[in-house]
Amino acid sequence: MVMKTTKTINPANSDIKWYLVDAEGLVLGRLASQLANIIRGKNKTCYSPSQDCGDYVVVINADKVVLTGRKLEQKMYYRHTGYVGGIKGISAGKQMEEHPERVLIKAVERMVGKGPLGDKQMTKLRVFAGPEHTHQAQSPITLDIGGKNPKNKRSA
């Protein structure tokens, strides 16, 4: 009798790739869901929810990402200082002016699982506000998320 075993993937024997995404004109939520799938490894056939087999993603032009509707005025990002009554809020529009990369990082972070595995997977996301990035040595593969679905891309 032949025993069949299921092969499990781990980071040591998975092929890790680097992807480059230009976020200019892309809708924030649609872009974030695609990025979350890539850094979690859900786009691979060897996906396992308990293993980190995702790929690295470098995002450029995060300052040109599009928020639909009235989210620039109405969407709020909250944090707490740790003191009594110390809740602070900043609108998405002001956050996009000051730190546009944080808006995209927070959107992807909320789509990745919470806990040690999610924290490790989030280290695979590199976001830059402008067109320049520091990962040319990894020779990332260009990924066209705007071309996958016409709803992914909007004019600013």
Describe the fold and architecture.
- The protein has 156 residues and is α/β, with parallel strands linked by helices.
- It has a single domain (11-150), classed as Ribosomal protein L13 (Ribosomal Protein L13p, Chain: A).
- Helices cover 26% and strands 17% of the residues.
- The protein has five helices and six strands, in the order βαβαββαααββ.
- The chain has helices at residues 28-40, 71-74, 92-98, 100-109, 116-122, and strands at residues 18-22, 56-60, 76-80, 87-91, 125-127, 141-143.
- The protein has a four-stranded parallel beta sheet with strand order 5-2-1-6, covered by helices on one side.
- Helix 1 links the parallel strand 1 and strand 2 (56-60).
- Helix 1 packs across helix 4 and helix 3 crosses helix 4.
- The model has no long low-confidence stretch (mean pLDDT 92).
What's the arrangement of secondary structure elements?
Layout: E1 18-22, H1 28-40, E2 56-60, H2 71-74, E3 76-80, E4 87-91, H3 92-98, H4 100-109, H5 116-122, E5 125-127, E6 141-143
Parallel strand pairs: 1-2, 1-6, 2-5
Antiparallel strand pairs: 3-4
Task: Please sum up the structure shown.
The protein has helices at 28-40, 71-74, 92-98, 100-109, 116-122; strands at residues 18-22, 56-60, 76-80, 87-91, 125-127, 141-143.
Key words describing this protein structure:
single chain, four-stranded parallel beta sheet, alpha/beta, Ribosomal Protein L13p, Chain: A, about 160 residues, two-stranded antiparallel ribbon
